[in-house]
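Fill-in record for Carbohydrate kinase.
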Amino acid sequence: MSKQLLIGIDVGSSGVRVELYDEEGSLIAVGRSGIARQDVKEWIEAVRKAMPHIVKECIDCEKHVSIDSTSGTFIAIDKHGEALYGPVMYYEKKIEVFEGVKNLPEVQELAKRGITTDAASPYIKILYMKRALKELYNNVYKFVPAATWLLYKLCYPKGEEWSDVKTDYTNALKFGLDITTTPPTWFKPLFDALEIDLDKLPGLAPSGEFICKAKSELAEELGLKNASVYQGMTDGNAAALAGGALDKGDVNIYTGSTTVPKVSVDKIVIHPALYYHIHPLNGYLAGSATGFTGAYLSWFAEKVLGLTIEEALRYAEVVEAGTEYLFFPYGDRGPFYDSSLTPALVNMVMYEQPREVVIGRLLRSMVLGIALLENSYLRLFEKTFNMRIADVNLTGGGSRSRFWNRLRASIYEKRVVIHGDLVGVGTVIPIIYRSGLYTRITEIKQRFLRPVDFVEPDRELVNIYKRFKEGFENKWMKLRELYRG
């Protein structure tokens, strides 16, 4: 029997990571490469550089590959899969277009079905293209998510027409998916109202569904010729699965440039701060994606204070707990979806202390504000789904600081389980599950999920931060009055 090689490719906005696992869940190799600019050729080159040598060297391996990438990012392609326009990144916005359609009954109805529209929604940007770039729009064969485009690039040789192009349910979500139907379908009334041609969107499939045997030149260059290619997912969903959100009640928070809280549930309860994915295994993933959190902290540290993020966290760690200012992150995405809500630092007072302490207080305030945002979602999950969360699973670059994780655990008043930043395992879990390699979720957790740390609440910090937690969301909402005044 040939050796099974499970390959999860994570294509983020700043780099590519390729993770290789065997069928026992052991990590065999990891490859990384940075992305300097958002360009489809740059993405492919980064995948080439990140692919571990063992993929080519293991000639007799049975290879299985899937890809995750940023949610809401898309490329407009022709019939041969060549990019006509894009990538259009998830964070790009068309505010004027959004303002003109946000009150349409169809937009409101989609919100009732768990999908919130904002200025960065893909169909808002597709509508912009139809209005401002009509000739280009007319020439588009399909608008496809980033992960989908990369997967099909493995399938089709250059020059061959693409057919039966499908995207997975998680990537389809922000494009206007109705997840209340079985199986999920595009929400046709929305596209009719916006006069967007539905045939320019791909078909639909679950994560982990077989697509093809790889036969492109790119696949051969990567050592993936004849590999089995499977439907992927968004990076947020990959992170959620890699971070333990496999079974009902499991919670994961991905903390990086943005913050992505998710909980595995068996029903949809509509709430304006939540949207839903079809869980790649069973049920749904309820959650959100915030505006820039870690990205803002890094920007402030580097551009304003001239510090690396590692230096910034060291400054923050030595500041006395409870002396922080109140920091509110971006509210342009979850939980408020209000583009006017930019970050604010309030309640600032003067302290006669060394400059290093003052700098540390500013930074610790931001760290605290991000943790308070995360906690607001945990409270929302418990209230909305009538559940009690025991552990909070963390993934992403923002989970590397033990100081920050101790602060988090104390604010949450829950144990924090750290899974590190390897999300590719989440990308391959649906392959494992749907192929029947392992059918019990508990066994998948035992074999493929390897927490790197556990952090308990500090009782002293729990008491100190109670006053910061009180009314945090209400105070944040009051910023609207200031910004709109």
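KEY FINDING: The chain has 20 helices and 23 strands.
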